[in-house]
Write a structure and sequence with these properties.
The protein is mainly alpha-helical. It folds into 2 domains: about 150 residues, no CATH class; about 130 residues, no CATH class. The chain is about 35% helix and about 10% strand. It has 13 helices and 7 strands. The strands form 3 sheets. It has a 3-stranded antiparallel β-sheet with strand order 1-3-2. The chain has a two-stranded antiparallel sheet with strand order 4-5. Strands 6-7 form a two-stranded antiparallel ribbon. The relative contact order is 0.12.
Length: about 300
């Protein structure tokens, strides 16, 4: 397995989403990515190997420490279920004490020191190397916990100063950087442009796409690949948003820059007509665009 494929698999963990909780924000449950971060910690510390991640108090402690950083009101500190169910994501195989029998039962605290997990599908090779472990760790944080990256990665917060010049558009190299982000956004928005509703799906293997995955907060400054920091946009509307002549607002309506004059061309008229229209949102409210990114786009709209 290549690193890009491994990151793609991590971006597509099957995690449940919550309903609205006390702070009014449905969200993805954090348990699977947190347990993987804890496992990478144990390997770094020499307390585990890729072929043997023990179900132990050290693993639970590292899970709990990270859980307290990212938890929301209705999250429960419970690493037991992801230890078993990461097998369904093709990440690792949890094994009974004999090292041969896959676990098909509930994991209990009393199982500590008796059961373990083994990375599989090539991840056992990647996680054996420190530089790849760090890249996998950074990918997990960028996808699931970008707002707490400084705490989870032990680094300084990313710069968040206002840009005085318009941001450059994301180019082809950006798409190559994170095909996993693109896949997550297109799945979240059902391959439909959030501005105009364009959806064209060709047969598998056609290698042609009409919809892009656009970051709200630019990747190069914020390192945020969470689906709530993305919009699915056709190439025209992606171009227009990256050049800051249209912006999605926190009220989920589009704003159009005053530099657009509908009298000059049909293209400008189409952009002008977008003003006040509602964003086409994902079905799951847990993936609605984050207000911070929407506010950033409005602030940077060309006057």
């Amino acid at each position: 397995m290549q690193l890009a494929e491994a990151i793609s698999r991590l971006y597509q963990l099957r995690v449940d989403t919550t309903t609205r909780d006390g702070d009014g924000s449905p969200h993805e449950k954090p348990h699977k990515p947190l347990l993987l971060l804890a496992a990478l910690d144990l390997i770094d510390e020499g307390l585990a190997r890729p072929e043997r991640i023990p179900w132990c108090q050290e693993l639970r402690d590292r899970f709990s420490a990270r859980f307290e950083v990212v938890r929301k009101l209705n999250d429960r500190n419970n690493p037991d279920l992801p230890f078993r169910y990461l097998a369904g994501d093709g990440i690792w195989i949890p094994l009974e004490e004999d090292g041969q029998t896959p676990i098909r039962r509930e994991i209990r605290v009393a199982d500590q020191g008796k059961v373990f997990a083994r990375f599989t599908n090539g991840l056992e090779l990647l996680t054996a190397l420190p530089e790849y472990r760090q890249q996998l760790r950074e990918a997990l944080v960028a996808r699931y916990f970008p707002w707490t990256a400084d705490s989870l990665l032990g680094s300084q917060p990313l710069p968040q100063e206002e840009a005085k010049q318009p941001e450059a558009a994301e180019d082809a190299n950006e798409y190559g950087r994170s095909p996993a982000f693109r896949r997550a956004i297109l799945d979240t928005y059902d391959h439909q442009c959030a501005a105009c509703g364009l959806r064209i799906q060709l047969p598998a293997g056609a290698h042609i796409s009409f919809i892009d995955a656009a970051h709200l907060l630019p990747w190069d400054r914020f390192r945020n690949d969470h689906p709530t920091n993305g919009l699915a946009l056709c190439k025209n509307h992606h171009w227009a948003m990256d050049r800051q002549i249209i912006a999605p607002a926190p009220n989920h309506r589009w704003i159009v820059s005053s530099v657009i004059d509908s009298r000059r061309s049909n293209g400008e008229k189409e952009l002008s007509d977008l003003a006040g229209k509602t964003l086409l949102l994902p079905k799951d409210p847990a993936f609605y665009p984050d207000e911070t990114g929407l506010e950033w786009r409005v602030r940077h709209l060309v006057a």
